[in-house]
C-alpha cells in the first residue's frame, strides 16, 4: 500500500503541477517555456498513473480524483497562497473516505 500511495502522490504532483504551469502560461501570461514544462508534466502524469498495480482503470482514476482534490487544496494553500476554508477541508475528507471505500480489498 505504501508503493500505491507514493505513486498516487507522484502522479498528483505531475498532474497538478503540470496544470498549474499551463494555467500560468495561458491565464497569467507567463513564459511559453512554463507551458512546455506543464505539458511535459501532464504527459508524465499519464505515464506515472499506469504504474499502479490495481487492475481496474476506472476505479484507479476515480481514486486519483479524490486524492487530487485534497492535493489541490494543499497546492492552493502552499503555492497559490489561497487558504482552504472549513467546507474545503470537509469536502476533502469526504473524498478521501470515498477513495478508501473504492480501493477497499474485495474478494
Description:
The chain has four helices and no strands. The mean pLDDT is 92. The chain has one domain. With 107 residues, it is an all-alpha fold. The longest helix has 27 residues. It comes from Ectobacillus antri.
Write the SSE topology.
Blueprint: H1 2-28, H2 32-49, H3 57-78, H4 86-102
Helix pairs in contact: 1-2, 1-3, 3-4
Order of helices and strands: HHHH
**SS element count, helices:** 4
Count of separate structural domains: 1
If you compute it from the alpha carbons, what radius of gyration comes out, rounded to the nearest whole angstrom?
15 Å
Structural class computed from helices and strand pairing: mainly alpha
Low-confidence stretches: none
Main beta-sheet strand count, sense and barrel state: none
Q: What is the mean predicted local confidence, pLDDT? A: 92
Q: What is the helical fraction, as a range of percent?
A: over 70%
Beta-strand portion reads: under 5%
**Number of distinct beta strands:** 0
Shape: flat
* Gap between N and C termini: 17 Å
Transmembrane segments: 30-48, 60-77, 89-105
Keywords: Cell membrane, Membrane, Transmembrane, Transmembrane helix
Membrane topology: Multi-pass membrane protein
Pfam family, one: UPF0060
Amino acid at each position: 500500500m505504501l508503493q500505491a500511495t507514493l505513486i498516487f502522490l507522484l502522479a498528483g504532483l505531475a498532474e497538478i503541477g503540470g496544470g498549474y504551469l499551463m494555467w500560468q502560461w495561458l491565464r497569467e501570461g507567463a513564459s511559453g517555456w512554463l507551458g512546455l514544462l506543464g505539458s511535459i508534466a501532464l504527459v508524465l502524469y499519464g505515464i506515472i498513473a499506469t504504474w499502479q498495480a490495481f487492475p481496474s482503470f476506472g476505479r484507479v482514476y476515480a481514486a486519483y480524483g479524490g486524492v487530487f482534490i485534497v492535493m489541490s487544496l494543499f497546492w492552493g494553500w502552499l503555492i497559490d497562497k489561497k487558504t482552504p476554508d472549513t467546507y474545503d477541508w470537509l469536502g476533502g475528507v469526504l473524498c478521501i473516505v470515498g477513495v478508501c471505500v473504492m480501493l477497499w480489498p474485495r474478494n
